[in-house]
């Protein structure tokens, strides 16, 4: 069959669609011999050169050449020879295919030395040049040589060659060690030149190169000079935030977000609605226009203001993301950022709102999030957003937010409860947020719970009625109320802790990362026996409050599991003694452990945990009786 199909192809001077199908079947068949494939290559080449070949079929012949290479990689030399012939053809599509095949065939050529790479990269084939520059990092070339090559090709007349050369500079600057500062400075200012290129794609590449080269320069400088160069890089990028290309603007804000050192007065200018007179005379190394080779400090004016108000949501999202890093560099700048982000929460784009919340969460994690009461209602409105991920992120921010007043605390609690009422499926996350917000604001929590304590009381018929979202929320909030372990007092009516037991399963699911159900039950039962004191007296006496934090819960867990752990310690001690074959001293060691256990339960006795202490003593007595029964050494007295 193979011979028959091959013969049909060879005798057809004017190739037809049926012959192309036969060629295709032979190319994709892995059992086709190399001699047949070579014959197909020759036939297709002759057909393509034939002026009588239908142009429509020429396109399909070119596709067969690509398939021939992909399926039979052992023919690169034949293909390269064919490519050279194609490059002389007048057909644009043929020359294009020649470029593509040349690039593919290079992947099978061993380019291990600089001379081979340089000879290939200087070939007139544009796609070969593009492919080599794109994959330059894969070749064994000295960084200094590669840097020179890339700098040279930034002047290439073809835009996508200039772009890939600039991207190569950016990648190279991320991994090289600075040996010649003047060379890196040259790379930086060459990249700055192309910020004014007429092609959008080249300007995008130039932004990436300016960012990478600039950061390499900053890293190589000392303290004062480091800040000056970082400011210069920041200003140079800020000069591009009003570029006509959306992609360039997105790239600019992405680069701005990578800068870690910026002077405060420059940062504040980016969100100011008027330029500062103090910065008008200040200039930094850079290029502001084609013939202006100093960058003024006023370049930063309105930069992020423009970004956050850009007509394209992708740009607004990129601007919000950039502020994650920059917002924590200055306290004054942080406050301005938060104020603007509150307005961004009303954005039409879900992605932008989510990114604004992510940025606020990042600021909150470093303890710098301060929300003004005038803006709080905007933030709480996002808790009712129809997008679940938006609501989830907003609750994460609330958990870390410090609220300066009781009124703001009440607003937040009410916002979370309305979230729960509107979206019952959010119960677990809402309860978790209520617990954390209450834990972080002990005094406000006590005041609120004492106000609403009558609401959580059972009805006259004895029904608790905690299916109501608001009542259940208040109970969850109450579990985080501060208590005094030392004084065994609490600042809210202790019976509320016993009411919370009715929601034990639901609360446990919300606090799964903190506590298990058994420990939580122990804690609630323990606190329900405390003495209630007024808030003023409680906070006056208890200077160091013990809120419902992880350490407190762990202490309750220790109490509840005390006797179990002691039995395990006894068994471990016994096993250890058996390993050492010291039978005659086993009883003495066990008795010492038991005596130590009696001493260790004294704190539990002071806490009034009579039941736990009694249970532990009973277990220890049983262990002592067992040792006495097994005593053969006569050491223990009857």
From TrEMBL:
Family matches, as Gene3D superfamilies: Leucine-rich Repeat Variant (1.25.10.10)
GO terms under cellular component: endosome
Record GO biological process: intercellular transport
PANTHER family: INTEGRATOR COMPLEX SUBUNIT 4
Protein name according to UniProt: Uncharacterized protein LOC104222546 isoform X4
Organism in which the protein naturally occurs: Nicotiana sylvestris (Wood tobacco)
UniProt lineage: Eukaryota, Viridiplantae, Streptophyta, Embryophyta, Tracheophyta
Gene: LOC104222546
């Amino acid at each position: 069959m193979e011979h028959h199909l091959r013969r049909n192809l060879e005798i057809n001077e004017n190739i037809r669609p049926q012959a192309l199908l036969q060629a295709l079947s032979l190319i994709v068949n892995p059992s086709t011999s190399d001699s047949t494939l070579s014959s197909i290559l020759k036939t297709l080449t002759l057909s393509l050169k034939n002026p009588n070949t239908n142009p429509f079929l020429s396109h399909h012949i070119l596709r067969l050449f690509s398939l021939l290479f992909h399926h039979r990689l052992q023919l690169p030399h034949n293909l390269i020879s064919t490519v050279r012939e194609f490059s002389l053809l007048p057909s644009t599509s043929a020359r294009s295919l020649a470029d593509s095949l040349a690039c593919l065939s290079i992947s099978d050529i061993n380019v291990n030395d600089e001379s081979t790479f340089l000879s290939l990269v200087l070939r007139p084939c544009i796609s070969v040049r593009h492919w080599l520059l794109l994959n330059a990092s894969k070749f064994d070339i000295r960084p200094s040589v590669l840097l020179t090559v890339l700098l040279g090709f930034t002047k290439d007349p073809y835009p996508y060659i200039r772009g890939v050369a600039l991207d190569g500079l950016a990648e190279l600057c991320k991994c090289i060690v600075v040996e010649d500062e003047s060379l890196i400075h040259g790379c930086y200012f060459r990249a700055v030149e192309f910020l004014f290129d007429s092609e959008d794609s080249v300007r995008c590449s130039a932004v990436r190169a300016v960012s990478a080269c600039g950061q390499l320069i900053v890293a190589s400088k000392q303290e004062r000079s480091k800040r000056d160069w970082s400011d210069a890089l920041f200003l140079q990028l800020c000069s591009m935030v009003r570029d006509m290309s959306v992609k360039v603007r997105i790239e600019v804000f992405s680069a701005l977000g990578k800068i870690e050192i910026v002077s405060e007065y420059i940062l504040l200018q980016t969100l100011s609605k008027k330029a500062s007179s103090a910065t008008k005379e200040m200039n930094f190394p850079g290029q502001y226009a084609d013939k202006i080779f100093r960058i003024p400090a006023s370049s930063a004016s309105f930069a992020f203001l423009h970004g956050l108000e850009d007509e394209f949501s992708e740009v607004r999202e990129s601007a919000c993301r950039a502020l994650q890093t920059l917002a924590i560099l200055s306290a004054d700048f942080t406050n301005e950022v938060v104020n603007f982000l509150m307005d961004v929460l009303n954005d039409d784009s879900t992605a932008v709102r989510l990114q604004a919340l992510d940025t606020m969460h990042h600021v909150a994690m470093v303890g710098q999030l301060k929300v003004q009461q005038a803006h709080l209602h905007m933030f709480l409105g996002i808790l009712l957003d129809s997008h679940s991920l938006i609501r989830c992120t907003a609750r994460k921010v609330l958990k870390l937010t410090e609220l300066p007043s009781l009124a703001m605390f009440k607003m937040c609690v009410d916002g979370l409860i309305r979230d729960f009422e509107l979206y019952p499926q959010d119960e677990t996350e809402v309860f978790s947020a209520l617990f954390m917000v209450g834990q972080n604001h002990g005094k406000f929590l006590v005041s609120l719970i004492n106000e609403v304590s009558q609401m959580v009381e059972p009805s006259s018929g004895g029904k608790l009625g905690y299916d109501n979202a608001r009542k259940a929320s208040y109970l969850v909030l109450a579990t985080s109320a501060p208590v005094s372990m030392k004084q065994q007092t609490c600042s809210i009516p202790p019976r509320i802790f016993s009411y919370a037991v009715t929601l034990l399963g639901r609360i446990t699911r919300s606090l799964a990362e903190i506590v298990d159900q058994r420990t939580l039950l122990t804690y609630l039962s323990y606190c329900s026996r405390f003495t209630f004191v007024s808030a003023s007296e409680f906070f006056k006496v208890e200077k160091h409050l013990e809120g419902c934090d992880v350490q407190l819960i762990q202490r309750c867990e220790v109490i509840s599991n005390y006797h179990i752990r002691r039995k395990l310690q006894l068994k471990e001690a016994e096993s250890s003694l058996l390993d050492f074959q010291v039978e005659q001293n086993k009883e003495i060691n066990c008795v010492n452990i038991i005596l130590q256990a009696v001493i260790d339960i004294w704190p539990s006795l002071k806490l009034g945990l009579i039941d736990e202490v009694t249970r532990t003593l009973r277990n220890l007595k049983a262990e002592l009786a067992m040792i006495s029964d097994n005593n053969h050494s006569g050491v223990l007295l009857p």
